[in-house]
């Protein structure tokens, strides 16, 4: 039986990027140094003492200077939405200035105007991973300090007042739950790694919960019609076997994954977390006023990155990965064959699983802000002699994920949109290199920094355009 197309007419078929991944121009027009500028490698690699030559993020793919031509390409792609971030250090270079940097504000004014002119809805992450001003990390230890909450509030007030008529959807943080594995990138915590214990991690998390709720309060006071969410990185955990003990282990891991969203939606710490704090003797500084703030300022929608599922078992063999903040654990699911060059197992059905689980638990609209397939790629000639990338594998993966998303909508789940990772090739956060390529657009830049930065449309570019133009109907036709 032919499957029904459940995508609503207003579904936001989109794509995504983030400032530090693709803007470049790291010190242009008054921009100050961010965390990314002393993090040249992979997300969990060691940092440099100060900005140092060789960091691909400094130039990235120079979107800052090429955004006009790139946005035209996004329009040609037919995007209904584009998720990106505002670089905090373009607005407040150190984070402490009295007045914002007008050149930085004007850049995003121009960017949003051009997106809207192409019929593209901007979805804005207020601050992405690795985008905190370096000064705030070094001066205050990032969100481990409540001082940074105040400076974040000021930043939020500035940008939302400025762009309230151009941006409807706001995301307070990117993958906020990665603070536990990546306290530097997610929260700007710079104290020595060996001194970062659970108390520091949960203090940082709490302060980010408070900052999230303060941002929601600010945004709603400026314009109550604006919509606010906060993203996590998440995926379902399956039991490795049918053993009851494995099923119980998976249940607990799935519940723990919901911790951040539970606080964002319900406005309070869940009982299972309070019990864990007590058992592990975890303490952090909070006030009754802060707890009241959390209760009174909750998210409008659920936003998350979905790249893969995971498996878990009761036995002690389960080991958390130390090298990649997006991998759930090292156990491989023997029932999933496809994986990326970096060992990420591809599970489209897991997206439907996650959408339904989130809907049943929260009854709020959902936005998939990242989901995609990366591969090492080189330019090749198509049948007409044009340089491109024949990325049928990306088409298959995205098609399968969108079909599962469509089924979830048919299940009754309300979904706002899908902004895949990523619109174009750029510096990967999980490697610090160009060779981990995600985009519909190939960018001629390489791991050694060479390349012309010229843009080329991959085969998936035309495919996704047809999907969007047909509001998903094209997904049900033959793949090739």
Keywords:
480 residues, TIM Barrel, two-stranded parallel ribbon, globular
Can you put this structure into words, describing what you see?
- With 480 residues, the chain is an alpha/beta fold.
- It has one domain (12-476): Glycosidases (TIM Barrel).
- It has 15 helices and 15 strands.
- The chain has helices at residues 19-22, 63-77, 88-91, 102-117, 134-140, 147-163, 183-187, 198-222, 244-257, 259-266, 271-279, 288-296, 348-362, 392-411, 459-469, and strands at residues 12-16, 81-85, 121-125, 169-171, 227-229, 231-233, 237-239, 302-305, 310-312, 366-370, 380-381, 387-388, 415-421, 441-443, 455-457.
- The strands form four sheets. The protein has a nine-stranded parallel β-sheet with strand order 5-4-3-2-1-13-10-8-6.
- The longest helix is centred in the middle third of the chain and has 25 residues, at 198-222.
- Mean pLDDT is 95; it is low at 317-322.
């Amino acid at each position: 039986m032919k499957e029904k197309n459940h995508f609503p007419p207003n579904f936001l078929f989109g794509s995504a990027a983030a400032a530090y991944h693709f803007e470049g121009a790291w010190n242009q027009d008054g921009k100050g140094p961010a965390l990314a500028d002393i993090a040249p490698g992979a997300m969990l690699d060691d940092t440099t003492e100060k900005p140092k030559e060789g960091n691909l993020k400094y130039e990235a793919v120079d979107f800052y200077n090429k955004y006009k031509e790139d946005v035209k390409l996004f329009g040609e792609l037919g995007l209904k939405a584009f998720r990106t971030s505002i670089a905090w250090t373009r607005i407040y270079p150190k984070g402490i200035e009295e007045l914002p940097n007008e050149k930085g504000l004007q850049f995003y004014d121009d960017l949003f105007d051009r997106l809207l002119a192409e019929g593209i809805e901007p979805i804005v992450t207020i601050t992405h991973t690795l985008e905190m001003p370096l000064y705030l990390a070094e001066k205050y230890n990032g969100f481990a300090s409540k001082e940074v909450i105040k400076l974040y509030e000021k930043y939020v007030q500035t940008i939302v007042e400025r762009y309230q008529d151009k941006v409807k959807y706001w995301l307070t943080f990117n993958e906020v739950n990665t603070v536990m594995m990546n306290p530097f990138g997610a929260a700007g915590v710079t104290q020595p790694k060996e001194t970062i214990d659970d108390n520091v991690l949960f203090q940082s998390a709490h302060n980010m919960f408070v900052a999230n709720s303060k941002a929601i309060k600010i945004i709603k006071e400026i314009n109550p019609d604006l919509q606010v969410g906060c993203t996590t990185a998440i995926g379902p955990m399956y039991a490795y076997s049918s053993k009851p003990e494995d099923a119980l282990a998976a249940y607990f891991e799935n519940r723990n994954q919901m911790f951040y969203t539970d606080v964002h939606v319900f406005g309070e710490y869940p009982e299972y977390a309070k019990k864990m704090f007590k058992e592990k003797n975890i303490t952090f500084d909070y006030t009754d006023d802060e707890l009241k703030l959390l209760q009174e300022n909750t998210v409008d929608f659920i936003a998350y990155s979905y790249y893969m599922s995971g498996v878990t078992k009761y036995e002690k063999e389960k080991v958390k990965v130390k090298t990649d903040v997006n991998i759930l654990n090292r156990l491989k699911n023997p029932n999933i064959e496809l994986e990326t060059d970096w060992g990420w197992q591809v599970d489209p059905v897991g997206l439907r699983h996650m959408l339904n689980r989130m809907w049943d638990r929260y009854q709020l609209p959902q936005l998939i802000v990242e989901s995609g397939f990366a591969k090492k790629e080189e330019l090749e000639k198509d049948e007409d002699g044009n340089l491109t990338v024949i990325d049928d594998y990306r088409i298959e993966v995205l098609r399968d994920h969108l079909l599962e998303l469509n089924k979830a909508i048919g299940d009754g789940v309300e979904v706002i949109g899908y902004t895949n990772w990523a619109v174009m090739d750029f510096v990967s956060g999980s490697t610090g290199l160009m060779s981990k390529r995600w985009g519909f657009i190939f960018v001629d830049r390489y791991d050694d920094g060479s390349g012309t930065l010229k843009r080329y449309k991959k085969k998936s570019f035309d495919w996704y355009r047809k999907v969007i133009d047909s509001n998903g109907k094209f997904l049900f036709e033959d793949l090739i």
